[in-house]
Amino acid sequence: MNINELTIKECYDGxxxxxxxSVELTQACLAQIKKRNKELNAFISVFEKEALxxxxxxxxxxxxxxxxxxxxxxxxxxxxxxxxxxxSTAAAKILSNYVPPxxxxxxxxxxxxxxxxxxxxxxxTFGHGASNENSMYGPVKNPHDIKRVSGGSSGGTAVAIAxxxxxxxxxxxxxxxxxxxxxxxxxxxLRPSYGINSRFGVMPMASSFDTVxxxxxxxxxxxxxxxxxxxxxxxxxxxxxxxxxKLKxxxxKLKxGIPQEYFEIEGIDEExxxxxxNKIKEISKNKDLEIVSVSLPMTKYAIPVxxxxxxxxxxxxxxxxxxxxxxxxxxxxxxxxxxxxxxxEGMNEEVKRRIMIGTCAxxxxxxxxxFRKAQKVRTLIxxxxxxxxxxxxxxxxxxxxxxxxxxxEKKDDILSMYLADIFVSPxxxxxxxxxxxxxxxxxxxxxVGMQIIGSRLEDEKLLSFSNLIINY
Length: 472
What we know:
Layout: H1 8-17, H2 22-40, E1 43-46, H3 48-63, E2 74-78, H4 105-112, E3 116-121, E4 141-142, E5 145-149, H5 155-162, E6 168-173, H6 179-185, E7 188-191, E8 211-216, H7 219-229, E9 254-259, H8 260-264, H9 270-283, E10 289-294, H10 302-317, H11 335-346, H12 349-362, H13 367-388, E11 394-398, H14 414-418, H15 425-430, E12 434-441, E13 447-454, H16 459-470
Parallel strand pairs: 2-3, 2-6, 9-10, 9-11
Antiparallel strand pairs: 1-3, 4-5, 6-8, 7-8, 7-12, 11-13, 12-13
Helix pairs in contact: 2-3, 7-16, 10-12, 10-13
């Protein structure tokens, strides 16, 4: 095995024993980027010189006995998350020259451990997309089949980890942007409970949905990262302090619910369904588990609720991207034309579509029948989950209705593209923790992901169970 293929725990042990250095580990990741990135397009920026300097510094920390779990380990970051003195464009033309003077809180915590930032990943512009085809840098291609999408919006990060260009990655999940590409690429993607991780320094899409989380090669790695980046942050008023809880179950057995609506939905691929059902049958043999059927009748409303509320928050949040304070500016005859020209040329079609939908939903004529109603149904979806979690400890569903689809296949079918998030959006609407873990391959050797959903703020239980399943 090449050292860039190792997990965090394996890298930590290897560095501690002196089997290899951080410089060697970083060079191995950089070599893989040089070999594969031109074809896969996973990285926007690669900080080669800076990374090697950080790796040398990490080796000194290790020699002096100051090694922490992430010291010397190369990682990558979705380009919509701010990194100090490193280009952070959100894959948007209007921010093509933006270099933040600070690290996002989660990135600061990781770098304080001595981890090595190796580069920034391609993504759908401002996180708008389910295929990573909406980027000014072009689409990210799936490493299992380069004619297929990587998933979005965090496709670049998922591909980088799946192809061993970095040891772990940090991305952002609004409605499924970590879990969906993780499923398509065959890696682990965690969306923590809303409010556990700070959003400070993350370019906002929909503030009441956005959540930062890891994409990793194992559940253990996801747990390691989550324990480091979690915690209350005075720079983000939505954060909460959560103490790690031991795995507690409602009965002697861990009760796992299977929501039938996720398996009966129109359009689910039969092969994906079969792989998930077979995995459920396999784990049901565990005497410590009880598998039961449950119902989440409000599931069918999650997609329309998601796109109305997210587009509304989008239209508000993106008002700050005006090319006056930062970003690429176009000349105009007056201030209005500077705004208009900069945004018209600097934002792509999907961004404009969402701004227009959101602005319409928030307008006086449509507020009550769209935005207000969507918020009410969002509450019903939350109550739906709360009711189910009184009966069970966790839920199992497919992560996506299909394997990775072909590049361009859904680009002109917007509704079909939006429905790619049909299984991941409900947990996001409710602010729940959810994880995608790889559980098999189709006949065409395409990865299939299983989604596990936990009760709010019970992330520890979710991760413990996921580790049990992936190693079963």
